[in-house]
Every structure is written in structure tokens, then in C-alpha cells.
């Protein structure tokens, strides 16, 4: 049966991690996959997570199934974290999913049954898995202008002019904050403009938020999403605990549906549960139980927020430090890195220049020019700056 299959297409980011592991050079640097590393180059378990899971181990009395929607305390906590204080808070429903990846797929499947002719509009460029996940669910995909390769910022005028063409059969996907891969975020005024367009032209806003806390702080990073949620009848959200709780491998996220009434949101949630049943049935428990424990405990929440904040601060320092190191080489070509938000920056380097970084400097970055700032170490900034300047001038 399977011999007729053509070979698999490799994931450009995950395959980079494999190549990195196999590289024997001792001065190698992994700036590929989006994982936060501390100044020792490690991704430690966050303190609040450690405490919560120790408590869970002591308290947990059973490993019996939880249910199709996962942990409802977690689901409520995710809605509180994202929607508290908005009019959407009382007309939303959430489903725990295996990471935001699971949420993206469940929401895509939901759109495919509700409106099979849906087209999902993605930023150009977008997270590597957005297009394949939407297409796997049978949806059409198109891209709207987003990143200006000259300024390395968002071209808001071009973006809004294109989104103005989206109608009732369209879904416009926005990154909640810390755009992957570019690092260029839209301004609050852009969120307001998109909200107006959604209400005027009838497209459904879809927000994917995977880095809350890494841009301008927990509350600020959700401000655009909250403006939308407050002002539209219907929207959908995919959210992740991989980065801001450091729970990557625990596969912890949620799909949230905001509707005009709680009853409608819960009906959509029920349909997602049907879809989950036919896919993975139930999400894994551990990561969600940890998050629920943290967010239901004031002290643990504080510990978590402080650590997240220090990770965020360190990221800002790394961005500024890198720009300074490049400036010290006599170049201002990468000053935009200090203006980007979150873990990533698209550098503007070509695939050939990225290949040179890998061959000549043992620096691994994604072929689209993306580097993971959160994977940097302070003592390696000069080395990276030299590599960036050298390959960009070649
Ligand atoms: N959405 C975006 C924009 C991402 O960058 C990622 C990757 O981390 C995901 C979704 C998937 O995250 P998760 O690990 O929660 O599945
Ligand atoms: O963009 C990233 O690096 C993260 C992690 O197939 C990731 O979002 C990368 C590739 C992939 C899934 C997750």
C-alpha cells in the first residue's frame, strides 16, 4: 500500500534542529527552532511550573480520563488570561487542545464543516504550519501583504488595503503579538482598523497568540486581541502555553470561540468536541493541569509572571546587545532588530547567506532569514554580529 508514496516533505525548522544536533563543531549556535534559552544555553523548567508539578504529583490520585474538552479549570483560566475585562468574556467557550497546533487544526476543521468554501488569509510570510494546517482541513489559503522587506516593519497601508477586500466567506488570521517569523507587529491603530473592516465587510477574525508576555508584557500583548474581542460578534482564537509557560513538549494550548451569546459559543465548542473525538479524542492532561494550578493560585501566578517578565527583559537586552555589537563592526544594517518584538527577527539575509552562516560560522538560522533571538547567549553576540556583517556584505 505505501510503496507508491512519494517521500515526505521536511519541516524546514524541525529538520534544521536535526542538522544542528549532528554538527560536531563546538562553537555552533542554534538560532533555528523557537525555543527560549537562558544565558547558559538551557531551556530550564520554569520555577512556577516546577512547584505546580511537584504539588500535582503529590495530590493526583488517578490517571483516569478527563474528558473531550480537557481540564475545564484550565479552559476557564485561558479565557480569563486573554479576555478578562472584555465584553467577550461572557460569550466565549474554550477547548483544551494539544498545543496551539491542535487548536489551529480543530478551528480549521470547525470552519470546514460550518462553511466549506472558506478562504483563510495569512500574513505574508506566516508561521510555517499555518498554510499546511488550513489546507489539510480542506480550506483555501491566500496571503495578504504584511512584512516590508525594505523597512523590516509591517506595511500597514498595503495590509489594510488588501484586508479591505475580505468578505463573509473569508477568515483573516492575525498573530496576537510577536509575529512569527518576522518579529514585526501591527500597531494598536491597525487592530482598530481591522476591527472596523471585520464589522463592515463580514469576515471572521482569527487570532493566533503563541507568545503572550514576550513582546511588551502579558497585558499589552493581548491589547489588540482584546479590542477585537470587545467589538466583534464572532472571532476565534488559538493560544499556546508552549513558550510563556515553557511547556513545549507537554502540548498545552486552547481553542477559543467568541460568539454573540454564550449559548452559541458553547454550541461551537460542542462541535469542536465532536471533531476532537474523531481526531485525538482527548488532549494530554499534564501541561494543562500545571497551568491551571499556577493560574488558580495567586502566589504561583506571581512567581510565573516574574519569571516570564525576566525572560522578556533578557530578550530586550539581547536585541539591544546584538544591535550594539553590529554597530561596533561599523554597520547599522541590523538596527531594526531592536524594534522587533518577541523571539524572532527576519534579518533579510538570503537563503545563500543563511547557508554561509551555517557553513562558515556554524550558525543555524531558518532559510527564510529568521533568527531566534531567544536562543542567543550574551557572550556570543560579537561572534554573531561579525557573522551577520560578513555574510551580508558578501
Ligand atoms: N502558532 C504560532 C504563531 C507559533 O509560532 C507556534 C509555534 O510555536 C504555534 C502556533 C504552535 O505552538 P504549540 O507548540 O502550542 O503547538
Ligand atoms: O516557529 C517555531 O520555531 C516554533 C516551533 O513544525 C515549531 O513555532 C517549529 C516548526 C514546527 C512546529 C513548531
From TrEMBL:
Listed CDD domains: AAT_like
Origin: domain of life: Bacteria
Organism annotation: Photobacterium jeanii
Transmembrane residue ranges: none
Descriptive protein name: Aromatic amino acid aminotransferase
Keyword flag Zinc-finger: no
Family per similarity comment: Belongs to the class-I pyridoxal-phosphate-dependent aminotransferase family.
GO terms for cellular component: cytosol
Signal peptide: none
GO terms, biological process: L-phenylalanine biosynthetic process from chorismate via phenylpyruvate
NCBIfam families on file: PRK09257.1
Cofactor(s) of this protein: pyridoxal 5'-phosphate
UniProt keyword terms in alphabetical order: Aminotransferase, Pyridoxal phosphate, Transferase
GO molecular function: identical protein binding; L-aspartate:2-oxoglutarate aminotransferase activity; L-tyrosine-2-oxoglutarate transaminase activity; pyridoxal phosphate binding
Assembly and oligomerization: Homodimer.
Every Aminotransferase class I/classII large domain range: 26-388
Keyword field contains Transferase: yes
Amino acid at each position: 500500500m505505501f510503496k507508491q508514496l512519494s517521500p515526505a516533505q521536511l519541516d524546514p525548522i524541525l529538520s534544521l534542529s536535526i542538522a544542528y544536533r549532528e554538527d560536531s563543531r563546538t562553537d555552533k549556535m542554534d538560532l533555528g527552532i523557537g525555543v527560549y534559552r537562558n544565558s547558559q544555553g538551557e531551556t530550564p523548567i520554569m520555577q512556577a511550573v516546577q512547584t505546580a508539578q511537584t504539588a500535582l504529583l503529590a495530590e493526583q490520585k488517578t490517571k483516569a480520563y478527563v474528558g473531550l474538552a480537557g481540564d475545564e479549570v484550565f479552559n476557564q483560566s485561558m479565557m480569563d488570561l486573554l479576555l478578562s475585562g472584555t465584553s467577550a468574556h461572557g460569550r466565549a467557550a474554550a477547548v483544551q487542545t494539544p498545543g496551539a497546533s491542535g487548536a489551529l487544526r480543530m478551528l480549521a476543521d470547525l470552519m470546514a464543516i460550518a462553511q466549506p468554501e472558506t478562504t483563510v488569509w495569512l500574513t505574508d510570510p506566516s508561521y510555517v504550519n499555518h498554510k499546511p494546517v488550513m489546507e489539510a482541513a480542506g480550506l483555501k489559503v491566500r496571503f495578504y501583504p504584511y512584512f516590508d522587506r525594505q523597512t523590516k516593519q509591517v506595511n500597514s497601508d498595503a495590509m489594510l488595503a488588501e484586508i479591505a477586500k475580505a468578505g463573509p466567506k473569508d477568515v483573516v488570521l492575525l498573530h496576537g503579538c510577536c509575529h512569527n517569523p518576522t518579529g514585526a507587529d501591527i500597531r494598536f491603530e491597525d487592530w482598530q482598523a481591522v476591527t472596523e473592516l471585520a464589522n463592515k465587510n463580514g469576515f471572521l477574525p482569527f487570532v493566533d497568540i503563541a507568545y503572550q508576555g514576550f513582546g511588551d508584557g502579558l497585558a499589552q500583548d493581548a491589547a489588540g486581541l482584546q479590542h477585537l474581542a470587545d467589538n466583534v460578534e464572532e472571532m476565534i482564537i488559538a493560544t499556546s502555553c508552549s513558550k510563556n509557560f515553557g511547556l513545549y513538549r507537554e502540548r498545552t494550548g486552547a481553542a477559543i470561540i467568541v460568539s454573540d451569546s454564550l449559548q452559541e459559543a458553547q454550541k461551537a465548542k460542542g462541535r469542536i468536541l465532536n471533531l476532537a473525538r474523531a481526531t485525538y479524542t482527548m488532549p494530554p492532561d499534564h501541561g494543562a493541569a500545571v497551568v491551571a494550578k499556577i493560574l488558580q493560585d495567586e502566589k504561583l501566578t506571581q512567581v510565573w509572571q516574574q519569571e516570564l517578565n525576566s525572560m522578556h527583559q533578557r530578550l530586550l537586552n539581547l536585541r539591544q546587545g546584538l544591535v550594539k555589537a553590529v554597530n561596533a563592526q561599523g554597520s547599522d544594517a541590523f538596527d531594526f532588530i531592536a524594534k522587533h518584538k518577541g523571539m524572532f527577527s527576519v534579518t533579510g539575509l538570503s537563503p545563500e547567506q543563511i547557508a554561509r552562516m551555517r557553513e562558515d560560522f556554524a550558525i543555524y538560522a531558518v532559510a527564510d532569514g529568521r533568527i531566534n533571538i531567544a536562543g542567543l547567549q550574551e557572550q556570543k553576540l560579537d561572534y554573531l554580529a561579525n557573522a551577520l556583517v560578513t555574510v551580508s556584505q558578501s
